[in-house]
Amino acid sequence: MLVANDVSTDTRVRKMAHDLAAAGLDLTLLAISPTENREVMRLGAAKVIRVPVDDLLSVRAGTGPHRMNRYELTRQIRAERKRFLNHQRDVGAEIGWLRREHARLIGRPSADPNGVEVKSARDQRIEHAIERTRGWPGRIPGAIVRRVLRPFLSFNRDSVRAKRMIRQEEVLRRKLAKAHQRYKDRQDRLRARLVDTRPRGSLPAEWRRLIPELHDYEAAFGPEIDALEPDLVHAQDLHLFGVGARAVARSLLAGRDTKLIYDSHEYIQGLGTYSPRVVAAWSGLEREYIGRADRVITVSPTIAEMLEHDYRLDRRPTVVMNIPVVTDDVKHSVREAAGVGSDVPLLIYSGGLDPTRGVHTLVKALGRLDGVHLALIARINHTYLRDLEEIARAGGYADRLHVIPFVEPQDVVSYLASATVGVHTIVAGPINHEVTLPNKVFEYMHARLPIVISSCRVMSEFVTDLEIGEVFVSEDVDSLAETISRVLENLEKYHAAYERQPEMLERYSWRTERRKLFTVYRELLGEDALPEDIDRSELAPLVDMKA
Q1: R_g of the chain, CA atoms, integer Å
Q2: For a surface tag, which of 151, 191, 225, 335 has the fewest beta carbons within 10 Å of its beta carbon?
Q3: What is the number of structural domains in the chain?
Q4: Whole-prediction pTM value?
Q5: Host domain of residue 265
Q6: Are 204 and 176 members of one domain?
Q7: Is the Cα torsion angle 343, 344, 347, 348 positive or negative in sign?
Q8: Where are the alpha helices (DSSP H) in 367-509?
Q9: Is 307 in the same domain as 396?
Q10: Residues in contact with 318: Cβ distance below 8 Å, sequence separation at least 6, in sequence order
Q11: Are 198 and 180 contained in the same domain?
């Protein structure tokens, strides 16, 4: 199993790896090391190897005299490209001049400096004889005489020069082709040492140029996968999909029947955090390899439909939603962590922090909710978090904004359960936001919290259909404050919805999703590879195996 992070906070990957290993699979999870060292760890019965991605192509400053920084590598690649393009333009201009002169020469006879045609007396006599043949009776004798006489005309110096120009153009084109080959060779040496079993000329190259860090992944993960000789490669998300696909191709060439699973966590074509060119490059990577996957998994039914339609897949991707593991053991409480009493309304936001998540809208709305507190479960050193704290300080309610730490994935639901309302403020508009169904929605649900959610289509329909929350207009502070007030005034209504639908939490549980995951693995590896399910719901911690 491959994942492009250090797996410490990736609950989806940890659940899958832990439970597949607990079911009896010999599973190795390859992840990114947060340091420059290769680390071997244990996650329950699963082995975790964290590799330093920057080891071959780019490293932190000062870690080796012969290693090149990633940004320096990218700069040199671009410089080589500009140098060749300039050379190509120069040669093209020279060819253009030759062609223009060639056209001028073959379009007119020899002339003196004043532009008057210059013909010798001999040429004039021969041309006069040729003209006289045109008046002869019968067409054939005149044509024969004209054909015999024409070669006796003097050679046209301009036509000779024109032929020489054609040869010069051919020489220039051959030199340009050699220069282009040298350029490609230099680019290949500078870029990743990619091993691709398919002809390079048939592959789209845009993502290779615009996302150079993917070459770092290949250099770090490729040898690790080859050494494991796996029966199945499960690529989590898109970053390592190409790496996994190429490793499977190498394995097939070696005679092993290795299977490939692609786990799509997002709708790539709808990403709003990248420029259109970079999104197009990511989409090109996905399009290039998705047809090679034996199975495709994704996180929501809507994304499954869109992937099937976009890439004309033979079968619809299997939906394994990102639902948390729930335990009855209460180790932590958000109220205790925030220092807020049980009688105080406490809003909770759990997850990543960046402007596209819209948390600034929530912090601004907090200023319009008297007596209400907000707890953010986030990394303390985040730059965006400092901006949020500044908003609260400027508004005079910084004492009601609390930043509390993450807990282990299996403890999240019990951690959140003491809050009053769960809020998710992701910005509506980007297609990926509109179709996603993220983990935090299910965390709030299993904590039995009323949910206030932004007006993204799939999430808002999910919450309102189950009657467990309300929707506000994305990025509208007034709408968010009004919606939270309305939910706080009718808490019993939403608590009753959970009591009224006891089957809901089982239907949307990790146990249900795990059975679907196991089915995919059983189809690829055989019915005897693992059971249909396991009687287990707890996650083991990530343990260092250095000792």
Answers
A1: 35
A2: 151
A3: 3
A4: 0.69
A5: 11-57+192-319
A6: no
A7: negative
A8: 383-395, 412-416, 431-435, 439-446, 457-466, 477-489, 491-500, 502-507
A9: no
A10: 295, 296, 297, 298, 304, 516, 517, 519, 520
A11: no
